[in-house]
Amino acid sequence: MDNIPTLAVIGLGYVGLPLAVEFGKKRPVIGFDINHTRIDELCGGEDHTLETSSQELADARHLRFTADPADLAEASIYIVTVPTPIDASKRPDLTPLIKASELLSGVLKKGDLVIYESTVYPGATEEDCVPVLEQISGLTFNKDFFVGYSPERINPGDKAHRLTTIRKVTAGSTPEAAQIVDSLYASIIEAGTYQAESIRVAEAAKVIENTQRDLNIALVNELAIIFNRMGIDTEAVLKAAGTKWNFLPFRPGLVGGHCIGVDPYYLTHKAEALGYHPQVILAGRRINDGMGSYVAAQMVKAMLKRRIQVDGARVLVLGLAFKENCPDLRNTKVIDVVTELKEYGIYVDVYDPWVNGEEAAREYELRPVRQVSQGTYDGIILAVAHQEFIKLGAEGIRAFGRSENVLYDLKYILPADMSDLRL
């Protein structure tokens, strides 16, 4: 492998680690993360995200991990996979991306290639990241170094759609760079690649993927609110409508996670900076961001109808992760339900066998219970469709409740007649 350029992956989370592992099976790779604990964990052959198994880590024979920025100087290709969150005002927070660019500027050499995978608004790579690379390194863009973009399409917890089986969009800052980027990913992506016309096109394609999903879910969430007022079962309506060949099978729910609930704000931010106020996209965001409060209010109303004293009541929330069979807590909207229930004076216990209690305490100042006692709760909210909860079934879940309780099934896990409320 002496003639194969060393590649470095910056950021070893849900996106970066699988990428480093796949490349590490075929070429020299440096996996870098500023989190020393994360590096120690990976060097020990463990991945707390559960995206990569110990065997897969072992199979990546050419991959080594480091938290020392000086080690990055050995590479000539860099792939940046850091988070791109939003702040408290729902504005894009490019801090991790800018810091990663600053870090790379210290080791960037003539002829190097920097590829970004983080989700951004169209133009961010060339307008926000490249100037940082140029200013600190003293090198000239598209003369001394080149840039590529290939948006991540990782679906945490999904064992069917993995990195190598999802088609990859690629782009480069020059036609030659674009070809290099495309060939690089084609070496590991079994599903093939799609070379976009420009970096801006690739950035835009990524941000609208999740915006489209967000709007579709917002539509069915609004339909659920309407049908609930009519006394019509939403799932029954969606099943009936689904008999038409072109009906899209979206279901209502809490829209959290690192993508769907975040990416639309990147697009709307850029649109507003250009003087256009998006209406449809932001309307969908308002609906989805309000679903936690809606669920809590529905739960309280159902308890009152059962003559259950709300102030001082105990409610069990099953699930905290943003999706099923996954430990990922990023931007989980279950926390909105918990927060709103507490506003009513309700004592809330959260149980999730998948999440790390320390991480939950650090991120949300909430510590999930480690076990659940039977006959304890006035209300139970089935918030995440973990396999453990599905296995329990209605009878097992009801056993956690007192003789008079309300069971709210947000995920349509149970038959319609086995729960008191459904979204």
How would you describe the overall organization of this protein?
By secondary structure, the chain is α/β, with parallel strands linked by helices. It contains 14 helices and 13 strands. Strand 5 (113-116), helix 5 and strand 6 form a beta-alpha-beta unit. The relative contact order is 0.08. The chain is globular, with a radius of gyration of 23 Å. The protein is 39% helix and 14% strand. Helix 4 runs parallel beside helix 5 and helix 11 crosses helix 12 (334-343). The chain has helices at 16-24, 36-43, 54-59, 95-105, 124-137, 175-186, 199-230, 234-241, 263-273, 280-289, 291-305, 334-343, 357-364, 387-398, and strands spanning 7-10, 29-32, 63-66, 77-80, 113-116, 146-149, 168-172, 193-195, 314-318, 347-351, 377-382, 401-409, 421-422. The strands form 2 sheets. It has an 8-stranded mixed β-sheet with strand order 3-2-1-4-5-6-7-8, with helices on both faces. The mean pLDDT is 95.
Distinctive features:
alpha/beta, 8-stranded mixed sheet, 14 helices, 39% helix, globular, 423 residues
Mean pLDDT: 95
Order of helices and strands, N to C?
EHEHHEEHEHEEHEHHHHHEHEHEHEE
| Proportion of beta-strand residues | 5-15%
**C-alpha geometry:** globular
Number of helix segments?
14
Q: How helix-rich are the residues, as a percent range?
A: 25-40%
Quaternary structure annotation: single chain
CA(first)-CA(last) distance: 55 Å
Q: Indicate the structural class.
A: alpha/beta
- As a whole number of angstroms, the C-alpha radius of gyration is 23 Å
Give the beta-strand count: 13
Strands in their spatial order, largest beta sheet: 3-2-1-4-5-6-7-8
Given as residue ranges, the uncertain stretches (5+ residues, pLDDT < 50) are: none
Question: What profile does the largest beta sheet have?
Answer: 8 strands, mixed
